[in-house]
Design a protein that fits this description.
Family: Belongs to the glycogen phosphorylase family.
CATH superfamily of the largest domain: Glycogen Phosphorylase B
Shape: globular
Bound molecules: ligand Z2T
Structural class: alpha/beta
CATH architecture of the largest domain: 3-Layer(aba) Sandwich
GO molecular function, one term: pyridoxal phosphate binding
Strand content: 5-15%
GO biological process, one term: glycogen catabolic process
Largest sheet: 11 strands, mixed
Number of helices: 33
Helix content: 40-55%
CATH class of the largest domain: Alpha Beta
Radius of gyration: 27 Å
Enzyme class: transferase
Cofactor: pyridoxal 5'-phosphate
């Protein structure tokens, strides 16, 4: 398609779809028409892999995830279809700017953080690798909240991403699936029958997922809840019109809003309803497809493999059992074999409080038949366990049911028992799963456990986010853009690490990216960014274990020393410390940390003497769109979680691939990043995971650490003095007392080593050639972290494993 043709289709779409011409078109009209023009191209010329499954010899991959943090769609679709230049030229011929139109696109923020963004990267790689796959999830009316700051405190606003429609979505109300809820179970010992109390409709809303230059389009099918007419009758059988409308609203709350907790779940009935709602609708879809193709249920594991993204969709395991037993009349053993061979489970955490459990008094009333099935699975499992010689202590700790503090289903145990493979998301994480969290399961079923280290899509996070680096890479490697599908080719950049022209070009790209970020922040937030300072970036959800507190404590020490004349300003490496972080709305300590960072920012940035050397940029509402501008501009990437707590991290990979150096602990995928880039190109500090365990055993007393570190005490005392809250000196008392008397994630214990390491960062940066060399080597050596590699690992280690 040439530019004239594109322009023609675009104006026609504008007229037919929006009823406007070029002169009367609004922003929304232009954006919508552009999306539809590209979408039509995807539909016309690309092969959808969602058709009849019998045409594909490969197993169909069903990815089940409660979250997809997609980012904007249009530029990615143009990139995939190689239509970017055509569209730009076409729009220019109409007096329009592609960049203007796409810059106002609203991102679907249907996820919290790493887990949701990983699902989006995996969808991109599945399509790029031409693997027939469907992503299943929930079409939340409101995604992750929009964050604003008022007096430095976080406020949450509803995310109205659907306000102007959703041009990338194709919804099919006529293909609604019914999902049942509540009620009771009838029947005798041999035949059990669920008699649900109510039901809702699940409407499929499809997103096309184009692979990069692959001519494959996969589907992301997100379910939206809709009330049935019967729903009002069964719940509020009153004949009252207002109540009937209220009942509809109740049903539709199921897909209303994304729960904003990252890594720490909230055990609410509505959340479990969401999980069952999308798991049940997705299984219905998969089984219907399978049966329509004339296949037997016994061959399900040969045709379909289901990947469970953490425990959020794990209720699908008893649901498949229910379908096979109650709806299709299979025997328990056959049903269990099929189920257990179909599912695979990815675990994303090590934090005990992040492991989902569902109290029986929530699960039972909502899904009575599923609870029976879970008990039966447990019964079979524990029998086997006892037969293998396990004592009662072991049986109790491996049970699918916990007894204390309340009786509840342990979803990670259910997932492990009901899956063919269990994987962690980085080498260290998978190892810790095997040796601690799921150790007893790993010794019982050693072959079931494997690792797949996470990855990120180079299409979005290099080609789209960093076009200047992408073209420098293409020019340098002389392979066109083949490296975008074969990221190991980045290794070729090592040959140019001593080439002065390449070094200069690389440095210029970084500087231009800083200028671009400065423009974005000026427009978006009214923040002035010093583009001549080192850009030191920490962007991720606000969580104690990630230790934003450690970062801000060190900034405060540096500030206090500068103010007290303990640092000669002439020797300082100027830095801008950039934060982006949302706190879960009910997470008190996290919100206090946001307030403190903003207070320190206000003080530093207002100080004309200090600002040129040390400043803070903390734009509100960090999201995928801002990540795409911030990450390519970064010099330094902060990955400073307490060792053993961050399962993988994926931001760490995006930074390294964009030529930032990491300061980090030996945690998650940092371990693998450091091994690949080499110790000279990575700033390592802090306790190792075994150190942490030992220190915890010995008894950790943060107050003692405070007493023994003058620099740390300086930071904490400066806060306590009210330097950042003059009208309320005690404002941050809760943070200070938590550090001194609790400090669950040992920020204080790692403080001195962190401060030492930051000095090494300054020295390295002081030599620009040395720094740029390290930055180049970070890019050249981290091709491993392409999500294409992750997906290939899933293929060989998980999905293609022969069924037993
Ligand atoms: C999440 O984003 C992650 C783990 C969770 O555990 C839940 C959520 Cl919402 C239940 C993150 C991990 O914290 C991060 O280390 C990892 O890189 C990411 O998932 C993708 O695996």
């Amino acid at each position: 398609m040439d530019a004239t043709h594109f322009a023609d289709r675009f104006t026609t779409t504008l007229r037919h779809l929006r009823g406007v011409d070029l002169h009367s078109a609004s922003d929304v009209d232009l954006r919508t028409a552009l999306a539809h023009t590209v979408r039509a191209e995807l539909i016309d010329t690309w092969q959808t892999t969602h058709g009849n499954p019998s045409t594909t010899p490969q197993r169909h991959v069903a990815y089940l995830s409660a979250e997809y943090l997609l980012g904007t769609q249009t530029r990615n679709a143009l990139l995939a279809t190689e239509l970017t230049d055509t569209a730009r030229e076409a729009l220019a011929s109409l007096g329009l700017s592609l960049d203007d139109i796409t810059s106002r696109e609203v991102e679907p923020g249907l996820g919290n953080g790493g887990l949701g963004r990983l699902a989006a990267c995996f969808m991109d790689s599945l399509a790029t690798l031409e693997i027939p796959a469907t992503g299943y999830g929930i079409r939340y009316d409101y995604g992750i909240f929009r964050q604003t700051f008022q007096d430095g405190n976080q406020h949450e606003q509803p995310d109205t991403w659907l306000a102007h429609g959703s041009p990338w979505e194709i919804s099919h109300p006529e293909r609604a699936v019914t999902v049942h809820l509540g009620g009771h179970v009838d029947g005798d010992n041999t035949t059990r029958r669920w008699v649900p109390e109510r039901h809702v409709l699940a409407i499929p809303c499809d997103y096309l997922v184009p692979g990069y230059k692959s001519h494959t389009v996969n589907l992301l099918r997100l379910w939206s809840a809709r009330a049935t007419d019967a729903f009002d009758l069964t719940i509020f059988n009153s004949g009252d019109y207002e109540k009937a409308v209220a009942a509809r609203t109740y049903a539709e709350t199921i897909s209303h809003v994304l729960y904003p907790e990252d890594s720490t779940p909230q055990g609410r009935t509505l959340r479990l309803t969401q999980q069952y709602f999308f798991a049940a609708a997705s299984l219905h879809d998969l089984l219907t497809r399978h049966l329509k193709a004339g296949r037997s249920l016994h061959t399900l594991p040969d045709a379909v493999t289901i990947q469970l993204n953490d425990t959020h969709p794990v209720i699908a395991i008893p649901e498949l059992m229910r379908l096979l037993l109650d709806e299709h009349g299979l025997s328990w053993d056959d049903a269990w074999h099929i189920t257990q061979q179909t599912f695979n489970y990815t675990c994303h955490t090590l934090l005990p409080e992040a492991l989902e459990v569902w109290p029986l008094d929530i699960l039972g009333p909502l899904l009575p038949r599923h609870l029976e099935i879970i008990f039966a699975i447990n019964h079979h499992f524990l029998d086997d366990l006892r037969r293998s010689g396990a004592d009662e202590l072991r049986v109790r700790s491996m049970s699918l049911i916990q007894e204390h503090p309340v009786r509840a289903v342990r979803m990670a145990h259910l997932a492990t028992v009901g899956s063919r493979t269990v994987n962690g998301v980085a080498e260290l994480h998978s190892e810790l799963l095997r040796t601690s969290v799921l150790a007893q399961f790993a010794s019982y079923w050693p072959d079931r456990f494997t690792n797949v280290t996470n990855g990120v899509t180079p299409r979005r996070f290099l080609a789209l986010a960093n076009p200047e680096l992408a073209s420098l890479i293409s020019d340098t490697l002389n392979v066109g853009d083949r490296w975008l599908k074969d990221l190991d080719l980045l290794r070729g950049l090592e040959d140019h690490v001593d080439d002065p022209a390449f070094i200069a070009a690389f440095r210029e790209v970084k500087h231009n990216n800083k200028e671009r970020l400065a423009r974005t922040l000026a427009n978006r937030d009214g923040i002035e960014l010093n583009t001549n300072a080192m850009l030191d970036v920490m962007v991720k959800r606000l969580h104690e274990y990630k230790r934003q507190s450690l970062r801000i404590l060190h900034v405060i020490t540096q500030y206090a020393k500068m103010k007290n004349g303990l640092i000669d300003l002439a020797t300082v490496t100027p830095r801008t410390v950039f934060f982006g972080a949302k706190a879960a709305p009910g997470y008190r300590l996290a919100k206090e940390t946001i307030s403190l960072i903003n207070a320190v920012a206000t003080t530093l940035n207002a100080d004309d003497e200090i600002r040129p050397y040390l400043s803070i940029a903390f734009p509100a509402n960090y999201n995928v769109t801002l990540a795409e501008t911030a990450i390519p501009a970064a010099d330094l990437s902060e990955q400073i979680s307490l060792a053993g707590k961050e399962a993988s991290g994926t931001g760490n990979m995006k930074f390294a691939l964009n030529g930032a150096l990491t300061i980090g602990t030996l945690d998650g995928a940092n371990v693998e990043i450091r091994e690949l880039v080499g110790p000279d190109n990575f700033f390592l500090f802090g306790m190792t995971e075994p150190d942490v365990v030992q220190r915890q055993r010995d008894g950790y007393h943060p107050h003692t650490v405070y007493e023994q570190s003058a620099d740390l005490a300086l930071a904490i005392d400066t806060i306590s003095s009210g330097a950042f809250s003059p009208s309320e000196p005690g404002r941050y008392e809760s943070l200070v007392s938590d550090w001194l008397w609790n400090d669950r994630f040992m920020a204080l214990a790692d403080y001195e080593d962190y401060a030492r390491c930051q000095e090494a960062v300054d020295r390295h940066y002081a030599n620009p050639d040395q720094w740029t060399r390290s930055a180049i080597l970070n890019v050249a050596r981290t091709g491993f972290f392409s999500s294409d590699r992750s997906i290939r690992d899933y293929q060989t280690r998980v999905w293609q494993r022969p069924t037993k």
